[in-house]
Amino acid sequence: MNDFVPARDIPILLGAFFVLSAAIGLMRFPDLYSRLHASSKLVTLGSAGIFLGVALEFAQTEALTRLIAVLLFQFLTTPLSAYLIAQAAYLRGLRPLLEGPDEWQALGKAALLDTDPNGAPPER
Amino acid sequence: MRGLALNILLALVWTLFVGEFSLRELAVGFLLGFLILSVFPLSLGTGGYVQRALAAVRFAGFFARELTVANVQVALFALRRHPPLHPMIVAYPLRLRGDSAQTLLAATITLMPGSVAMGFNPERTVLYAHTIGLNSARAARASVRKVEDALLPLYGQSAAPEESA
């Protein structure tokens, strides 16, 4: 067992903590939309922390450039999947559990469907 | 784009001068080249590039800070006994125009404290977001507006409010 190296181990521990909270949040939050907050934000920074720690462990240029590429794709794809899941659920009619207004519905849900009834892609 | 191409060219010229092609020298050359471009913005016609690059750096710092805040907040919500989620869906009238700018805004919103982007209206003038931990729709709109304010200079668009839908 190696000794505790703060520069390497603190990012990993923080990342693990965020990923653990994401798992707990996924279990405890009341509905799909709230759970997306846990799965998108926490997993992004959590995995970033773990990757950062691993890259610092190797401390080579190649490890760092790969870290940058991984983080870039992580930051690009995680919000995209959260967006698609939320939009698909909402347009399929899964009612969110709300304590405040639903301004999407207030503005007219029918007009906001991005596709026509035949399922063709929207005209741009 | 012309500014970026010039900057990369200057970085390559620097590696030729040093006689060593490595990531480190390329980065040094890029920084030196950026310095040259920012000292002579008019004669090289790169003023817009320098300003947008600086806006990008500022945005990266802003993003890192907000992402950290968001994570601490959601982690606390996950661990608290009765988290004050107060979920709601807000509509945000966009000032930002253009597909890539709006995509970046939606992605950033999702990683920011309290909000997950859910959709646009067909005209791409309103962004819908699910929010937690924010007390009012006004507060939610203010937090989206903060991101938009950071993104507007990046895309060279004015912050002047235009007619909203």
TrEMBL record, chain A:
The keyword Membrane applies. Keywords: Membrane, Transmembrane, Transmembrane helix. Pfam families: PhaG_MnhG_YufB. The keyword Transmembrane helix applies. The chain crosses the membrane at residues 12-30, 42-61, 67-86. It comes from the Bacteria. This is Cation:proton antiporter. It comes from Deinococcus aerophilus. The lineage of its organism: Bacteria, Thermotogati, Deinococcota, Deinococci, Deinococcales.
UniProtKB/TrEMBL annotation, chain B:
Signal peptide: none annotated. It comes from the Bacteria. It is a multi-pass membrane protein. Keywords: Cell membrane, Membrane, Transmembrane, Transmembrane helix. The keyword Repressor does not apply. The chain crosses the membrane at residues 29-50. It is found in: Cell membrane. The keyword Transferase does not apply. InterPro entries: Cation_antiport_E (IPR002758). Its main location: membrane. Pfam families: MNHE. Belongs to the CPA3 antiporters (TC 2.A.63) subunit E family. This is Na+/H+ antiporter subunit E.
